[in-house]
Design a protein that fits this description.
463 residues, seven-stranded mixed beta sheet, five-stranded antiparallel beta sheet
């Protein structure tokens, strides 16, 4: 059983002994620590305070929800339970409720045996590094004060936030439902048996798509395939595209903050190019700066420069991208895993906003999805990971990589990234899995693979 404690939240497998995984005891401890942190930082005289809780559809969701809401009310907070909800819906609900925080119960792209507590601040954004570290310190200390009987919180169930989220998206200035409706799009979706199966059809019908072809939309949590929206896991929707004569396909992860697009011919648009295409559309209407993380394609930089803007790179992680976006006044940003962050809606990765913006772009362009993809430079990213073996000194490996490639442009704000003339490679420890990730990009698949092979051999020699 596995439990990963990081500043971005607590993630683990379900089951095992009392000191293993994300069991009820662990949930109580970390939720109590989070509640203690929130109480400590609430303004004086703020009263009881409320915290929003939303969850994806994974099997353990109900158990984790009961323990989480019980602990929060036991700490004296009111809980706004919004039920099955995407991560971006929960983020928006925190701000709309004027709550003092929120918890999303989702392990994102991890398999069904995982779950997690994603912790939000009062703006519905992920906790900063300092705040996350404080929560972990409080959990390690384990000294909590629970409410007396007459000071217990209550649970308020509110299932309207999916509808409010969709309404917010439809009201965005750059979302044109009339154009989408006029295009009479035939759309295929794969929602991997989670909350996307409920909310994507609602959004797409509200946008006016002509016909919808659904894969794995029953939100029972028994994921029909590996839930990470990568090409090797999306063969069914790829085959469906030509059979259904669909114009575009969308696949999301269990909490709907990542978006993969499929072309009408069944080819993958490329998760890296989700952000590139949406940014192209946004920049064509509102020129400005963009942000993506160090592991994202250079194509976004190229598109941004074409509109006279400036591109900035951040450390990996939504909170780091958001921080850099605010610092630079970026009009669009995100991560190369299909995560769109559009500040006009909110500062959080949101596949629903990405779908609406992309469909508007596609409708206004008059192109096929494959033709739109062909607008962008052909760059290929190789994504690998190395399981952390006992005794592996990751810091020593990273230092050795820096020394070995010192003659090139090296960035070390998050692991080590080496930039070459037409390619790059990025080596970093994962925040969500016990692995070291190696991402490399080059103009060809062979070039990207060769860079990844080179770093893999280097690690093998050092291990």
């Amino acid at each position: 059983m596995t439990l990963i404690k990081s500043i971005s939240g607590i993630r683990g497998t379900i089951g095992g002994g009392a000191d293993e995984g994300l069991n009820p005891l662990a949930i109580v401890k970390f939720v109590s620590a989070y509640a203690t942190y929130v109480r400590r930082h609430m303004p004086a005289g703020a009263g009881r305070g409320k915290i929003v809780v939303g969850r994806d559809a994974r099997i353990s969701g109900e158990m984790v929800r009961h323990v989480t809401t019980g602990t929060l009310t036991g700490m004296g907070f009111d809980v706004v339970d919004i039920g099955l909800a995407t991560t971006p819906t929960t983020e928006l609900a925190v701000a709309m409720e004027k709550a003092c925080g929120g918890i999303v119960l989702t392990a994102s792209h991890n398999p069904k045996e995982w779950n997690a507590l994603k912790l939000l601040n009062e703006r519905g954004e992920f906790l900063s590094a300092g705040a996350g570290a404080e929560v972990l310190a409080l959990a390690a200390e384990g000294v909590f004060t629970y409410a007396a009987a007459d000071a217990l919180g209550r649970v308020i169930v509110d299932s309207r936030y999916r509808e409010r989220h969709i309404e917010r998206i439809l009201n965005l200035a750059l979302v044109d439902a009339d154009a989408v409706r006029a295009a009479k799009f035939r759309v295929a979706i794969d929602c991997v048996n989670s909350v996307g199966g409920v909310v994507l059809p609602e959004l797409l019908y509200a946008l006016g798509v002509e016909e919808l072809f659904k894969l794995h939309c029953n939100p029972h949590g028994n994921f029909s395939h590996n839930p990470e929206p990568l090409p090797e896991n999306l063969t069914e929707i790829s085959h469906l595209m030509t059979q259904a004569r669909a114009d575009v396909g969308f696949a999301v992860d269990p909490d709907v903050d990542r978006l993969a697009i499929v072309c009408e011919n069944g080819a993958m648009f490329g998760e890296e190019y989700t952000l590139v295409a949406v940014s192209d559309y946004v920049l064509s209407c509102t020129p400005g700066n963009t942000v993506s993380n160090l592991s994202s394609t250079r194509a976004l930089r190229d598109v941004t420069l074409g509109y006279g803007g400036r591109h900035y790179a951040s450390a990996v992680g939504e909170v780091n991208v958001v921080e850099k976006m605010k610092e630079t006044g970026a009009v669009i940003g995100g991560e190369g895993n299909g995560g769109i962050i559009y500040p006009a809606s909110h500062y959080g990765r949101d596949a629903l906003a990405g779908i609406a913006l992309f469909l508007t772009f596609l409708a206004r362009s008059g192109m096929k999805t494959s033709e739109l993809r062909a607008r962008y430079p052909s760059r290929v990213i190789s994504k690998r990971k190395v399981e952390l073996a006992p005794g592996m000194d990751v810091d020593a490996i990273l230092e050795a990589v820096k020394r070995h490639y010192a003659g090139n442009r090296v960035t070390d704000i998050d692991g080590v990234k080496i930039d070459f003339a037409d390619s790059w490679v990025h080596l970093r420890r994962s925040n969500t899995e016990p692995v070291v990730r190696i991402y490399s990009e080059a103009p060809t698949a062979a070039g990207a693979e060769a860079l990844g092979d080179e770093l893999m051999r280097f690690i093998d020699r050092r291990d």
